[in-house]
Amino acid sequence: MKPDLDAVDHVAIAVPDVAAAVGWYRGKFRCEVAYQDETWALLTFANVRLALVIPEQHPPHLGMVSPHAEQFGLLKTHRDGTRSCYVRDVAGNAVEILAADSIGPLHGAS
User: Fold this and answer.
1) In the prediction, which pLDDT does 3 show?
2) What is the fold of 7-107?
3) Which of 21, 41, 67, 100 stands 20 to 30 A from 3 (CA)?
4) Going by DSSP bridges, is the β-strand pair 76-77/32-36 parallel, antiparallel, or unpaired?
5) For the chain (length 110 residues), average pLDDT per consecutive 10?
6) Secondary-structure percent of the chain, ordered helix, strand, coil, rounded to 5
């Protein structure tokens, strides 16, 4: 990874049933479940993490890591310990900006 480039932490897609989606992805691809409950799951692949979310809890989005996340808006602490805020890109897509210092083992950092 080039240190002068920003990092994508995860891509989140909407699913109606998290357990069914986890089962499908695990059955088709080699990945690990880093976290799973009824409202979201985080799958780890060799090069990216895939979040499976129900739309009532989270919008489908792209998760980016930033050392200056607070410059994007007020950060909220989530149940996994990360801090982030959501913004919209110029096309209206949701982008989650995660504080770099809050990324832990669940998200692949130590």
Assistant:
1) 67
2) 2,3-Dihydroxybiphenyl 1,2-Dioxygenase; domain 1 (3.10.180)
3) 41
4) unpaired
5) 79 97 98 94 94 92 94 92 95 95 63
6) 20, 40, 40
